[in-house]
């Protein structure tokens, strides 16, 4: 693996292979560092440094394995007949301990626990195409998107006429379509059904990711930089597993309950015109 070195000559150090195995074991167990420190006979502090270094090394491969592309539209269409889909978008909360007493409450989410609110988009093969892991749990999904590079790329028309599909926590835009809260016509009902089935790919992606790497499903008691590196590193590894058709793993830990979808507010005619046109010309 690139960027991995033996950092100590004492006791011959810990080989890169054993550093990697220790880190993967930590991702798989999702427990305290002491549970993996004994795995290669190192101290807890050494285990912490190894997890930090290996996670950072894997996270540095983000641009190689997590890429926004436009090659999934046909596969998305085969799910429920929804055309021109770029990706499905959503956020998920990763549990953490309170960072500190000064800013800790910023990380307390609406359910009362501390977390990072992680935004991601996925393709039809359930691979991550973009991951944002720097916002506290109190941040709203729409706030994260509105301040993201992804939103700027969409505003600039970088993805052409492709759509993102999001839930009602997001504002409806010409390039980001949400479901209709109170559908009335047959076309609106068909639109909602196709939208929900297609958007479900991001929920499935989160589920597979958290089952394969329970460390992101349980509470991480590490510093924020380490937590962020682990989130990105496991997302990279998830894509590698998907690309190599590795079998999905059964759930061995009880995952946190699914996020509650918030009601969409402050929609206007200009925002929903693209969605209305799609319903009238395609789903009606």
From TrEMBL:
Cofactor dependence: a divalent metal cation
A GO term from the CC aspect: nucleus
Q: Does the keyword Lyase apply?
A: no
**Which keywords does UniProt give here?**
Hydrolase, Metal-binding, Nuclease, Nucleus
An example molecular function term from Gene Ontology annotations: hydrolase activity
Q: What range(s) does the DDE Tnp4 domain occupy?
A: 89-239
Q: One of this protein's Pfam families, by short name?
A: DDE_Tnp_4
The protein's location, in the record's own words, is: Nucleus
Per the record, the similarity remark reads: Belongs to the HARBI1 family.
User: What is this protein identified as?
Assistant: DDE Tnp4 domain-containing protein
Q: Which organism is it from?
A: Euphydryas editha (Edith's checkerspot)
Q: State the organism's lineage.
A: Eukaryota, Metazoa, Ecdysozoa, Arthropoda, Hexapoda
């Amino acid at each position: 693996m690139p960027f991995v070195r033996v950092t100590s000559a004492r006791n011959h150090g810990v080989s890169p292979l054993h550093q990697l195995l220790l880190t993967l074991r930590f991702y798989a167990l999702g427990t305290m560092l002491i549970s993996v420190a004994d795995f290669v006979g190192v101290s807890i502090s050494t285990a912490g440094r190894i997890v930090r270094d290996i996670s950072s090394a894997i996270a540095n491969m983000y641009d190689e394995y997590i890429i926004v592309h436009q090659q999934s539209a046909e596969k998305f269409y085969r799910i429920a007949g929804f055309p021109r889909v770029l990706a499905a978008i959503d956020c998920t909360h990763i549990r953490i301990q309170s960072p500190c007493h000064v800013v800790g409450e910023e990380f307390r989410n609406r359910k009362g626990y501390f977390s990072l609110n992680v935004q991601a988009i996925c393709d039809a093969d359930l691979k991550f195409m973009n991951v944002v892991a720097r916002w506290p749990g109190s941040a709203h999904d729409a706030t994260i998107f509105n301040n993201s590079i992804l939103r700027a790329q969409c505003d600039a028309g970088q993805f052409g006429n492709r759509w993102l599909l999001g839930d009602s926590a997001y504002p409806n835009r010409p390039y980001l379509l949400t479901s209709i809260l109170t559908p009335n016509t047959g076309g609106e009902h068909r639109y909602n059904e196709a939208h929900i089935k297609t958007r479900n790919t991001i929920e499935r992606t989160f589920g597979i990711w958290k089952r394969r790497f329970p460390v992101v499903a349980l509470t991480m008691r590490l510093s924020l930089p380490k937590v962020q590196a682990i989130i990105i590193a496991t997302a990279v590894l998830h894509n590698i597993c998907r690309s190599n058709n590795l079998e999905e793993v059964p759930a061995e830990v009880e995952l946190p309950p699914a996020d509650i979808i918030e009601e969409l507010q402050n929609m206007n005619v200009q925002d929903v015109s693209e969605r209305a046109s799609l319903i009238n010309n395609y789903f009606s």
